[in-house]
Amino acid sequence: MPDYVILSLPTLECHLEHVCIGGWVGGEESIAETTTPYTLHLTPYTFHHQKQRREEKREEGMAESSERIEEEIASVVDEAKDLQDSMAAHISRTTNDEQPLRQRALRLDSKIHSLRSSLYSLLSNKLIPPSRAHKLDEDLQRAKCIVVDGDAASLLPGKAQGRFLRMFLGPINVRASRKDVQLKVKEEYNSYRDRTALLFLLFPAILLILRSWIWDGCLPAFPVQMYQAWLLFLYTGLALRENILRVNGSDIRPWWIYHHYCAMVMALVSLTWEVKGQPDCAKKQRGVQLFLQWAMMQGVAMLLQNRYQRQRLYTRIALGKAKRMDVVWGETAGVDGQLWLLCPILFILQGFEAYVGLLLLNTAFVGVVSEWQVIFCGVLLVVMAVGNFTNTVQTLMAKSRFKAKMKKSKSKQRLD
């Protein structure tokens, strides 16, 4: 029987120039090289068999990869479930551990208020020297700052969220439980004020320069409306941030938040105000021109406040007389040099703001520009100017009373 099988299939001839043929010579293996052409007969059956083997190996590899991925996915799912269970148990333990700390913080806060009332009662009945009472009051204030400005502040009840926050954000809690997160909110607010103060100065300055050099003394409506839209965005952002800061323990005066509400409404109404052009453009746009000049002065005042008052606030925080979440706004000046610098600027701004409001009312009443938006914006400017002036005077009076009290206590200490 032959050692090979001849298949009745078409064959493929491969001519090889160099073929290595092995054989046994003298009991030892030797390899001889021939240069004679050699014809290799490969049938289609051989190609089909090799292709089938490759496909089988590929399918086996894919099956192994699929099984391995399924095992890894199942392991990831189990790990996620285990992590969720561990985190839920951790939150439950943390909540249970917070309860006694919360009660302790509430008792301590109530005790501080009670001791302060008792101290004031002793001082009013002249049962304790004023110098001693002042020293004890500072100690109580320092203890109060430690409680309400430290990590224990999250254990105390927070301020209720106002309607403004609920209107924009809904009934969600915006109070941060960690002090570092609260401080990041404050730093972002200060950064936002710095950016907007610079834009408050540059935006109207650019409009006034273009009005004189390019627009022949008559402002187009579109740039003015862009500026008014930016003012709406600015005051809305400030009001939102200040409300969030108040919820997180910042001591922002309510008037400044109301002031930004009024400014928001004024910016929204001014967007519907048609900016008049020729003829008599200079007369019709007199109020707009003065408002842009006032905005430039406001930008300068904001930059000065950010520079001088923040340094003083950091000092007060270090002395325990202010909380880390407190911010500077409005008239809050620090030392006498800053008062002499900032207060005249603030009073000039407030007077100029009232003048612009009265000018808008005058242009509406004499019939130059008689739209209702002009009357509305004029009234709002006057109201904001009066409110700013009143709040500034009240703050300065409170500072003067505090300084007089400090001088009186120091003089009594020298006499004692």
Automatic annotation (TrEMBL):
The keyword Aminoacyl-tRNA synthetase does not apply. Keywords: Membrane, Transmembrane, Transmembrane helix. The keyword Transferase does not apply. Pfam families: TMEM120A-B. It is found in: Membrane. It is a multi-pass membrane protein. GO terms for cellular component: membrane. The chain crosses the membrane at residues 196-215, 227-244, 256-275, 287-304, 373-398. Belongs to the TMEM120 family. PANTHER family: TRANSMEMBRANE PROTEIN 120 HOMOLOG, TRANSMEMBRANE PROTEIN INDUCED BY TUMOR NECROSIS FACTOR ALPHA. This is TMPIT-like protein. The lineage of its organism: Eukaryota, Viridiplantae, Streptophyta, Embryophyta, Tracheophyta.
